[in-house]
Amino acid sequence: MGDGEARSARRCASLASISLALLESFDRLRCLGRRSVLALSGIAVGCAAVVALLNIGHNAARDAIAAFQGLGAHLLVAGFRAQPGVTRPAPAALDRTALAAAVPGLEQAAPILSYATDVHHAGRSASAMILGTTANLAAVLDLRLARGRFLSDFDVSSTYAVAGARVARELKLQTGDRLRMDGYVFEVVGIAAALPRNPLLPVSADDTVFVPIAGMRRFLAAPEINHVLARGRDTARLDADAQALKTWLEGVSGRTVDVQIPRHLLDGLSRQSATFTRLLAGLGGISLLVGGVGVMNVMLMSVGERRREIGVRLALGARGRDIRHLFLAEAALLSIAGALAGTLLGLAAAYGFVRFSGWRFALSALSLPLGILSSLAVGLFFGLHPALAAARLQPVQALRDD
Amino acid sequence: MTVESVTLVLVRRGGPGGGNLQSFAMTQSPAMTRAPLIVLEDICRTYRLGGQSLRVLDHACLTLDAGERCAIVGASGSGKSTLLHLLGLLDRPESGRFLFAGRDMARASADERAVTRNRRIGFVFQSFHLLPRLSALDNVALPLRYRGQSRAQARRQARFQLQRVGLSDRAEYRPADLSGGQCQRVAIARALAGEPSVILADEPTGNLDGATAKEIMDALLRLNETHGLTLVVVTHDEGLARRLGRRLRVRDGRVEEEHG
């Protein structure tokens, strides 16, 4: 045997060794022994846990954020801080033209001025918040009307009012009805559709009667704006807009102004749900590890039971690496089959859970590569150890164990 | 290549390149009978059993010529199986020289030993050692697969070997569905598949009844007579040992030539 010939024969043999190992382990998996089923289910359950938990976490986070998404991703809430010793009143009205010029990033801005009292109609009464505001509050809050119209810019000094959904329901209000509040009579021109309570806002639209801001002088001797609600055009620029709004308001009022960005709360919320998802992924990883230990035990058992076979193969001329390839191929095939089965199982479980919880299912894109690759890694890692142990055996050691 | 030149090579065995030349001579003319195929010098092998070390082979020496046949006999536990494992490169001696076709196998790498086992040595075991999950044909083809042959090619060659031992109609049977004699014939076909220089048989008839044992022994002897295969048989059966001619007895860790 010449050296070159030997080398090419060896190269050819090493390729053949891998294909032989694959073919043989495939044959063996086809007649699935009990051990293979055990290993396979270990990997499959681990992978399913990772995929399912990642998807459930993803969907839970989406649902939590979606609940707030419509309610203020664009909102800014400015409030005048109550300071001891400062007696200068906040303005009673908002110069919207000047504000739009000073803070061009704002799409809409509406002042609100509130006063709590009882409202009466046709012998019924209800407690309500009277909110003096301007026409564009509807746009800021995304408030829709069930009947009639909202306040308009021409209603400034009129006695028109728009009733919130709960107030209208309790008083059985229709448009055109007359509403008595603190001795004053207002005409109902519109009834608002129900708006889910938004914890990020200082008003609850359903419990409110909206009146033109100028009309608040009827209820309050010295009306002061409580808050300015504004809607920014670009969520990415909200911080800058908030700062500009604060500066402008402080300039015109001489009072200290705090501007809150509900968006920040949303961000905190998504950070929290990301943590939650990571926690679930960690749980999935642990179950995958447990599955991996199962695979390792199965592979070790397999080596133990098949010592004699390893001895025979070595006697017939298998090299250490042939044996190693054989067991690695087996581990790889087990892991691949387990990962695929586990992915399907995990997706089905996550889908069932998400539908059961009443959320809408959305696939977490990361879950598939993460689940499959980590199962493959675990399966190969734990398959490698017994394969290396098998490859190190001396032929006579392996053969002697009958 | 003449007989003189081989002798010359043998004399210069220790010199550089001598081993290669000699193995070249071996592979070129397998029918040549008086060249040593296997040389064991001062081989020692110790086993550790329960804290006690047991020297099974103690400076054993042995020379086997190509084409020769011989029996290894000895009492139970005398070390005859150990000797066969060493001859078959299934085990390594602690010390001593082991030349296989001129190459020093005691110091060869594991891979080189595996390749030598694959290409030069055929094993026949007492308990057959067929792989239960493979068909008879795939069992016979296995050594060829480890040589890097394609599946189709290996199976073709294996089919031919099965035919030689008269089992071509049982090619797709699993070992569990074959009788003991048939299993041993499959094992012989497997040993022959790689066209080795030497067949090492460890009690090949130990698990078989009288008639089948004779049949298997006849088959092995025929291989030696007609194909010039070197044949080494470990046995405790004196009658069988006599049929092989040369007898080596393992006793007290030494290998002794036995006559008569």
Keywords:
heterodimer, A: 402 residues, alpha+beta, 2 domains, six-stranded mixed beta barrel, 10 strands, elongated, B: 260 residues, alpha/beta, Rossmann fold, six-stranded mixed sheet, four-stranded antiparallel sheet, 39% helix
Kindly describe this structure:
The complex is a heterodimer of chains A (402) and B (260). Chain A folds into 2 domains: 20-67 and 268-400, no CATH class; 82-255, no CATH class. Helix content of chain A is 55%, strand content 17%. Chain A has helices at 3-30, 34-69, 96-102, 137-141, 165-171, 238-253, 262-305, 307-315, 320-356, 367-392, 395-400; strands spanning 75-80, 106-121, 124-133, 145-148, 160-163, 178-181, 184-192, 208-212, 227-232, 257-260. Chain A is elongated. The model of chain A has no long low-confidence stretch (mean pLDDT 82). Chain B has a domain at 68-90 and 118-258: P-loop containing nucleotide triphosphate hydrolases (Rossmann fold, 3-Layer(aba) Sandwich), CATH 3.40.50.300. In chain B, 45% of the residues are buried. By secondary structure, chain B is α/β, with parallel strands linked by helices. The two termini of chain B are 36 Å apart. At the A-B interface, helix 1, helix 8 and helix 11 of A face helix 4 and helix 5 of B.
